[in-house]
Specification:
InterPro entries: Spore_III_D, Tscrpt_reg_HTH_DeoR_CS. By secondary structure, the protein is mainly α. The protein has helices at 2-19, 23-30, 34-48, 50-88. It contains four helices and no strands. Helix 1 packs across helix 3 (34-48), helix 1 crosses helix 4 and helix 3 runs antiparallel to helix 4.
């Protein structure tokens, strides 16, 4: 069991780095929870492969710093879509 978790942590980190993925995207891809992704990268991976952990952490920190922008864009899209639907009828 422990070997599987270590392997998963490495796979998760590689996915995050390769695809510049967010925690949510990664969790969906691997079929696990966001908290598991976070724990694998921030706690488990540091003990397994510190270099890989720091690279993944850079991507996660960048995504975290940009999340308010993505949220604003998503809200804007939502209301633009609603407006377009209302003008059709």
């Amino acid at each position: 069991m422990k070997g599987y978790i270590e392997e998963r942590a490495v796979d998760i980190a590689n996915y995050i780095i390769d695809f510049n993925a967010t925690v949510r995207q990664t969790a969906k891809q691997f079929g696990i929870s966001k908290s598991t992704v976070h724990k694998d990268v921030t706690e488990r991976l540091v003990q397994i492969n510190p270099t890989l952990a720091s690279k993944a952490r850079i991507v996660l920190d960048l995504n975290k710093s940009e999340r308010h922008i993505r949220g604003g864009l998503a809200t804007k899209e939502k209301y633009l879509h609603k407006q377009q639907c209302n003008t059709r009828y």
